[in-house]
Design goal:
Elements (H helix, E strand, L loop, with lengths): L1 E6 L6 E8 L2 E8 L5 E6 L3 H17 L3 E3 L18 H8 L10 H13 L3 H17 L3 H4 L13 E2 L1 H13 L2 H9 L16 H10 L32 E2 L1
Parallel strand pairs: 6-7
Antiparallel strand pairs: 1-2, 1-5, 2-3, 3-4
């Protein structure tokens, strides 16, 4: 008997069927509304085949598939109207970070990279623009003075411009609410925490989409430390006493 499963959760709109005949099974899968692709596999005996069918079926159920009786009665999900990249979509992408994979930066970013790569290249560029603006807005002495041991300490202290940038990345990576809280109150800046990998998200998404390594887009804002001159206004405009490393 053929067993039929569908998954229409989130962005999914897929079907998967499996049918055992003796010591072999046939699987068909694809997007709902299409014929899909078919493959078959044979085993030494019927029981081994049955166990493999059961294993595959349980895997599909674990991924959100539901069993139905008739595929022809299922309506394909309507295609949502395209929405170009904006602030709301930017933060939706950021929310996709998988922090359960902390310690493996690629794994943390993977869901966001995959989602962003599914968008038009113009949206990837716009994402980079919005990211650059967020980092630029946090570039200032009041924020740099509240990042823990590596804080800006004035003319007699050492200050790492790169580390401060990576701390600003951490703020953005933790989402819209935290960003707005820090923006309003610099003392909320993270202490001894940074997330440099955020800088590479647009390039990773672009390269995944285009299957290339030639991302060279220059975002709208220069987010390198000291680029926001209003945020770094000092009585001594020469800043000759800054010691950078």
């Amino acid at each position: 008997m053929k067993r039929i499963y569908i998954n229409q959760t989130g962005d999914s709109n897929k079907f998967w069927t499996i049918e055992q005949a003796g010591n072999s099974y046939t699987v068909t899968w694809g997007k709902i509304g299409t014929e899909g692709r078919t493959t078959s596999k044979s085993f030494e005996d019927r029981e081994t085949c049955r166990k493999e069918v059961e294993k595959l079926t349980n895997e599909k159920l674990g991924k959100g598939y539901q069993e139905i009786s008739e595929l022809s009665q299922v309506q394909a999900k309507p295609v949502e109207d395209y929405k170009p990249m904006d602030e709301d979509i930017f933060w939706e992408v950021i929310k996709l970070f998988d922090w359960t994979k902390t310690g493996n930066d690629d794994a943390v970013l993977r869901p966001a990279v995959k989602h962003l790569a599914s968008m038009p290249v113009e949206d990837i560029y716009k994402f980079a623009d919005i990211l650059s603006e967020k980092l630029f807005l946090l570039d200032g002495i009041t924020y740099a003075s509240n990042i823990g041991e590596e804080s800006y300490k004035g003319e007699d202290g050492h200050f790492s411009v790169d580390y401060f940038l990576y701390v600003r990345c951490c703020v953005v990576a933790n989402g819209k609410d935290y960003f707005n809280r820090v923006k309003a109150n610099p003392t909320e800046m993270p202490k001894e925490m940074e997330f440099e990998p955020l800088l590479y998200l647009p390039a990773d998404a672009y390269n995944k989409k285009t299957k290339s390594e030639d991302y060279d887009y220059e975002p709208k804002y220069n987010f390198e430390t000291f680029s926001n001159t209003d945020g770094w206004k000092m009585e001594d405009d020469k800043k000759s006493w800054w010691k950078l490393w």
